[in-house]
Amino acid sequence: MQSLDLTRIEQRAWRSYHEDGLMDIAFGVLLLFVFAGSAADRFHWVAIVLLLLVGPALAISKRFVTAPRIGAVEFGPARKARKRSVVLFIAALVAATMLVPIVLGGTEWLRSHATFVSVALGCWVFAAFAAIAYWLQLTRMYAVGLLFGAAFTLAELLDTPVPFLIAGTAVALSGVVRLVAFLRRYPRPSGTDGAY
Amino acid sequence: MEPTDRADSAQPSATDIDRLIHEPARLVIVATLSVVEKADFLFLMRQTGLTQGNLSSHMNKLEAAGYIDVEKTFRGKRPHTVLRLTDAGRAAFAKYRARMEQVLGDLSPEPHTEAKGLS
Asked: Which of A49, A176, B103, B118 has its CA at a distance of 20 to 30 angstroms from the CA of residue B87?
């Protein structure tokens, strides 16, 4: 018989809903669009539009891939509060990042401290993912954040978008592996099975 | 005569526990529903590992007791059932947990453990 630790039951339910790899694929594709936008000037605006479509695409995929296989669930207020914490933290992070160049002396200062800015950018990106990993209790997001942070830092330092391509491919592929495992573990119920 | 009749009413008794929740499969269902707002039938099947027939049967018993609220709709041509623990269900589960903690907490040490301690 399974453990009756309610915290564990809640975490297991939460994690099972996020083991489909779709979030990883979305983040990987996001980074690949950043690469495409940086690499090809003409593709710049198309990449921005595609970046904005990643979120809705993830929501639609969850509805048509995940929910028919493991069912639908609405989590409690504590889980919703954790989601709010992530949004507030990232909003604060974005606001702080907007203010930093103004406080430190504008774009001139940023250009004269390129190395520091590159590393800070990587740390900023990692902090956003660390917030997701911590509050949403999805530990693999620390690794995704590390890859994202390294990609942004290296792309700035080396002045090439190739790190975006490498990191984006790695994150998206890890998501695909997870998705394949998920689809095998949870086949779509046939007939009336599960459709009570 | 029931053991509860002999027991002091102020003292928790193992026979006072809610048998409807105490059944292992129903306990897992109620425990799972207690940590979410609501979940559909398929999600509960996946989380509890119960078969469709088993879950359906336990769901009916819990619904008849007023512990869960069952909402049946259709998604296209497929039936879709959403379950939610009612306030009465949450209260009963909280009472069950408290009672079980009391009853198990009051258990004396196992006899062989005591014997080891003496020797």
From this structure: B103
